[in-house]
Amino acid sequence: MANPKHKTPKAKTGSRRSQWKLSLPAISECPRCRQPKMPHRVCPNCGYYKDLEVIKKEAKKAK
């Protein structure tokens, strides 16, 4: 089994690990209700996707 000939410097290890970071999720605006939503998904607020009602939402009752 092969063994390393030299010790890897901390700078080399750190520069290699520097790309392991999280990115923020993309958020778009629903064209119908103007609420934030994930792109290419049904709006959780109004239930529409591309001008089609996918999930039926009932109106909230006032007390």
What do these coordinates show?
The chain is an alpha+beta fold and 63 residues long. The chain has a domain at 25-54. The protein has one helix at 10-17, and strands spanning 28-29, 36-37, 48-49, 52-53. The strands form two sheets. A two-stranded antiparallel ribbon has the order 1-2. A hairpin with a 2-residue loop joins β3 (48-49) and β4 (52-53). The longest helix is centred in the N-terminal third of the chain and has 8 residues, at 10-17. The radius of gyration is 24 Å and the shape is rod-shaped.
Number of extended strands: 4
DSSP helix fraction: 10-25%
What is the overall shape? rod-shaped
Overall pLDDT confidence: 88
Give the low-confidence spans: none
Please give the radius of gyration in angstroms: 24 Å
Gap from first CA to last CA: 75 Å
Instruction: State the strand order across the main sheet.
Output: 1-2
- Biggest beta-sheet profile: 2 strands, antiparallel
Specify the number of helices: 1
The share of residues in extended strands comes to 5-15%
Q: Helix-strand pattern, N to C?
A: HEEEE
Structural class: alpha+beta
